[in-house]
Design a protein that fits this description.
Blueprint lengths: L4 H8 L4 E3 L11 H11 L3 E3 L9 E4 L7 H13 L9 E7 L3 E2 L3 E2 L3 E8 L2 E5 L5 E5 L4 E4 L4 E6 L3 E8 L8
Antiparallel strand pairs: 1-10, 2-3, 3-4, 4-12, 5-11, 6-11, 7-10, 7-12, 8-9, 8-11
Length: 171
């Protein structure tokens, strides 16, 4: 996992932060793996839009204990930024089987998005709109209360690592 000094500073300042090649992913994250995780862990899939078909965006809550690397990502970020533990902190998976646009929204927690498969644009709204395109192994930090949406350019799988507690500033 690779975070340079400017990434740490940007995250500590509560700025959207894009990290290209944050991690080299050895495992293949595909829809066969998603199916296996669901079956082995008795996970529930939640549709995120109202399409109610395979063109939807899906969410699987609380997967940090499903694969060793999910727990590793969670622990690394939690300890690095010294987040106060909150019971809602967790790793969720989001996936879509087709290119898809998510709803514009604001998260109430800090979120680290790790791309596991596919290509996704994250659009941020503010004084100027900004887009970041993330690919496998890239990460983007989205501070709470930032208006944004995801635009899947391909089928995609992302890990969303959310922290509701406060983080300590790293000096």
């Amino acid at each position: 996992m690779l975070l340079q000094k400017q990434h740490l500073q940007s995250i500590n300042e509560g700025k959207v932060t894009y990290v290209k090649d944050f991690v080299k992913l050895e495992r293949t994250y595909d829809f066969n793996l998603i199916s296996l995780l669901i079956e082995e862990n008795n996970l529930v899939i939640l549709p995120k839009t109202n399409m109610s078909n395979l063109k939807d965006i899906f969410q699987i809550h609380k997967v940090s204990n499903c694969l060793k690397e999910f727990k590793t990502f969670f622990d690394f970020l939690s300890k690095l930024f010294r987040y106060e533990r909150d019971p809602q902190d967790e790793v969720d998976l989001f996936f879509s089987l087709t290119s898809q646009i998510g709803d514009t929204h604001i998260d109430e927690e800090d979120v680290f998005i790790l791309s596991l498969n596919g290509k996704t644009i994250y659009r941020f709204y503010g004084e100027t709109d900004t887009d970041y395109c993330i690919n496998k192994g890239d990460m983007i930090f989205i501070p709470k209360n930032i208006k944004h949406k995801a635009i899947g350019l391909t089928p995609r799988i992302i890990a969303s690592i959310g922290f509701f507690g406060k983080k300590a500033e790293i000096k």
